[in-house]
């Protein structure tokens, strides 16, 4: 088996990476940072997104093993440092869980894609399955996955999505609204069967941000967004114990778990 390790800069993470290397090499695994079979992510969600960015072109062909060491982690919360030896000992026989990703043209998106113009109103047609929904004018549009719905989208009054694999949403950011012009101005939820196209009318000063990476506006000025038919695979030792509801409860509320 081939592996790669992506870690943050915390001293604890560096120590975990050293231990991982020793454990994996003892199993005769080979470190390969170009075409690994398994990618060990030591850190929080920011580190996980970094790993997805690095391996974006083969993201559906690898298995991620996130280990929480750092900040808030929806993706990395599933495994703890104390789980490392147990995970490694029987990793080939563990069935991965799957998390959905969005496809936007050639990009695979774990959290969200932002289409934004901070200098002047973004002008774009929004089509659902080839039919015009609206011509948008405003600061921008954001499309988020279930996992991404608790980040940027939530901070802008988007919906929090519990369904892990079948739903994504579009959120308008600061749309123009007056007596002469209106948009939906509400989160819109799409299912796996829907494809949304954003046709940018004026590309000057438009930024496209895929998770944490800035991308160029394509020459044809059209961004086609849908849920991928291939999910990201992830080893999660505690997937049954640590549900999304429990994570939401612990991070966003002050309520005690229900007994």
Automatic annotation (TrEMBL):
A Pfam match: NAD_kinase_C
Record-linked SUPFAM superfamilies: NAD kinase/diacylglycerol kinase-like (SSF111331)
Record GO biological process: NAD+ metabolic process; NADP+ biosynthetic process
Molecular function per GO: ATP binding; NAD binding; NAD+ kinase activity
InterPro entries, sorted: ATP-NAD_kinase_N, ATP-NAD_kinase_PpnK-typ_C, NAD/diacylglycerol_kinase_sf, NADK
UniProt keywords, alphabetically: Kinase, NAD, NADP, Transferase
Isomerase in keyword set: no
Top-level lineage group: Bacteria
Chemical reaction(s) catalysed: NAD(+) + ATP = ADP + NADP(+) + H(+)
Name the UniProt record assigns to this protein: NAD(+) kinase
The species this protein was found in: Mesoplasma chauliocola
């Amino acid at each position: 088996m081939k592996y790669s390790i992506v870690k943050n800069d915390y001293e604890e993470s560096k120590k975990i990476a050293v231990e991982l290397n020793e454990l994996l090499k003892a199993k005769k695994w080979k470190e390969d940072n170009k075409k690994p079979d398994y990618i060990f992510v030591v850190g929080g969600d920011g580190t996980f997104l970094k790993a997805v960015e690095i391996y974006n072109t083969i993201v559906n062909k690898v298995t991620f093993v996130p280990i929480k060491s750092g900040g808030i982690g929806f993706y990395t919360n599933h495994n703890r440092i104390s789980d490392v030896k147990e995970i490694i000992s029987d990793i080939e026989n563990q069935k991965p869980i799957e998390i959905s990703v969005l496809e936007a043209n050639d990009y695979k998106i774990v959290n969200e894609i932002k289409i934004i113009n901070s200098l002047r109103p973004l002008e774009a047609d929004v089509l659902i399955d080839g039919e015009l929904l609206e011509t948008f004018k405003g600061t921008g549009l954001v499309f988020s996955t279930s996992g991404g719905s608790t980040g940027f989208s939530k901070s802008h009054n988007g919906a929090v999505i519990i369904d892990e694999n079948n739903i994504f949403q579009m959120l308008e950011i600061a749309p123009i609204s007056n007596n002469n012009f209106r948009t939906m101005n509400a989160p819109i939820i799409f299912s796996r069967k829907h494809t949304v196209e954003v046709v940018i009318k004026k590309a000057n000063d438009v930024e496209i941000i895929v998770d944490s990476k800035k991308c160029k506006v394509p020459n044809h000025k059209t961004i086609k967004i849908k849920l991928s038919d291939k999910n990201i695979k992830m080893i999660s030792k505690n997937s049954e114990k640590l549900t999304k509801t429990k994570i939401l409860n612990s991070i966003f509320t002050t309520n005690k778990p229900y007994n």
